[in-house]
Design a protein that fits this description.
single chain, alpha+beta, four-stranded mixed sheet, 6 strands, 43% helix
């Protein structure tokens, strides 16, 4: 009659052993999870990716020039240029019009444009421009304070880039000269009436034509 009791006792021991093993695995799993969590939280946070204006400003600062900020108007001008080049798959400053006309809406007194194709990222494109003397001069435009950058991909897969950098927004506009006074204009010969003035001297009467005299006596002609 004790066999059932013994059987229950052995089963209980086995059950307790199984529970202890499960508890050990659970504790181990929790420890591993805690370690992974601590490892992940200890990883360095990725640095903020610098935008085009920041990268250009860093380059300008290293060369003694002031920083630039992104400008909506210049971005639109750059986007128009990049899209135009991508549409025709050609690298050309005048593909959508003369630069001076295109940049006029910015109201800047000085501006320059860089274009390129090939790279999908701006940092690599900026590297191209820095290593090109003409493009480098544009990046270091004196007095520049604003910039616009855009890109567009052509049907062939080329990525076209355009950058417009500008400055001189704070220069006062030249004052308009006041209109000349009438007296001054007359003195300078800008206005003058043609012909004799009304009410002035009357023209002299014409002298009678001389006659041939048959006899001339005491100043009289007969």
């Amino acid at each position: 009659m004790t066999l059932p009791v013994i059987a229950r006792s052995e089963a209980t021991k086995q059950s307790n052993s199984v529970h202890r093993v499960v508890d050990c695995f659970a504790a181990l799993a929790m420890t591993l999870m805690l370690g992974v969590t601590l490892f992940v939280t200890s990883l360095p946070t990725p640095a903020h990716a610098a935008g085009p204006a920041e990268l250009i400003s860093d380059f300008r600062a290293k060369n003694g020039e002031g920083k630039v900020v992104m400008d909506a108007t210049l971005n639109a001008i750059a986007q128009q240029q990049a899209a135009g080049m991508a549409a025709k798959d050609v690298l050309d400053h005048d593909v959508v019009g003369n630069f001076n006309n295109r940049v006029a809406p910015s109201k800047a007194s000085s501006a320059a444009e860089n274009i390129a194709y090939g790279y999908d990222s701006f940092p690599k494109t900026l590297g191209q421009w820095i290593n090109s003397p003409g493009h480098r001069r544009n990046l270091l435009l004196k007095g520049a304070t604003k910039v616009g950058v855009a890109n567009a991909k052509s049907a062939s897969g080329r990525t076209y880039w355009a950058m417009v950098i500008a400055g001189g927004y704070d220069k006062p506009k030249p004052k308009a000269k006041p209109p000349a006074k009438p007296a001054q204009a007359a003195a300078k010969g800008q206005t003058r009436a043609a012909g004799p003035a009304a009410g002035k001297d009357k023209p002299a009467k014409p002298k009678p034509a001389p006659r041939d005299c048959t006899i001339k006596m005491l100043g009289l002609c007969f």
